[in-house]
Write a structure and sequence with these properties.
The protein is an alpha/beta fold and 233 residues long. The protein has a domain of 163 residues: P-loop containing nucleotide triphosphate hydrolases (Rossmann fold, 3-Layer(aba) Sandwich). 34% of the residues lie in helices and 21% in strands. Strands 7-8-9-4-10-11 form a 6-stranded mixed β-sheet, sandwiched between helices. Strands 1, 2, 3, 5 and 6 form a 5-stranded antiparallel β-sheet that branches. The two termini are 26 Å apart.
Length: 233
């Protein structure tokens, strides 16, 4: 679950980003939208304990994130968060298999080869295990990155603009892949996007009504809802 109260974050001496109070149940689907600069990526970074709030309360999966810092934040993130960033950050020098194995190193755990193979199999890319990222298509690379994101069976999956560079068919497939992975792992899924196609795609692959969180450009007021038609580009 995700629970925030009076959450704020500022970069340097800039105007603080003010986020809405939310209480998201475990297993929910959240579509996060808003104009550029409204704080979508920052909200994801806060949820992943990549940055600390300067004001307010933030609890994710039962953990007060204000209490984490340094190595404790890294360890918590490795076990609890699956992150699919805009830039996939696959190591160019490592094979697909070794890229996934890095997740165990980050979590301080021994490599579990069968789990790596199962994750790749579930995402339909098991045959690519020995390829380098440069040998993958865009869609294949995205599937590999998602396999890495769900490898530790996280309770929260965060996706930042996952359809930004995809055509309509590929965008539909990406959303289906994310929703299926979240359902498989009983995870909460948060998709940050300005792409109105995502709301349409979500309605075709799940009967669960998404929670819509719109971050206002004014940075001081935000809206929370559940009607898919409110997703704004």
């Amino acid at each position: 679950m995700i629970k925030t109260q009076q959450l704020q974050f500022a970069y340097g001496a800039g105007q603080p980003l003010v986020f809405p109070d939310v209480a998201v149940p475990q297993g929910a689907l959240v579509l996060l939208s808003g104009l550029s600069g409204s704080g979508k990526s920052t909200w994801l970074a806060l949820l992943a304990a990549l940055v600390k709030p300067q004001q307010g309360a933030l609890v994710v999966a039962g953990q007060d994130l204000r209490a984490l810092s340094g190595r404790s934040a890294d360890a918590w993130r490795a076990h609890n968060i699956g992150f699919l960033p805009q830039k996939l950050y696959l190591s160019a020098a490592l094979t697909v298999q070794h890229n996934l194995e890095l997740a165990f190193w980050a979590a301080g755990l021994p490599v579990d080869g069968p789990r790596v193979r199962q994750a790749l199999l579930q995402l339909g890319v098991a045959e690519l295990a020995q390829r380098l990222p440069s040998q993958l298509s865009g869609g294949q690379a995205q599937r590999v990155a998602l396999a890495r994101a769900v490898l530790m069976r996280p309770g929260l999956i965060l996706a930042d603009e996952p359809t930004a560079s995809l055509d309509d068919a590929a965008a539909q497939g990406a959303v289906q892949m994310l929703v299926h992975a979240a359902k498989e792992h009983k995870a909460t899924l948060v998709i940050a996007t300005h792409d109105a196609r995502i709301a349409q795609a979500v309605t075709t692959c799940t009967a669960v009504a998404p929670i819509l969180l719109y971050l206002s450009p004014a940075r001081s007021t935000s809206a929370l809802g559940t009607a898919a038609g409110r997703l704004q580009a």
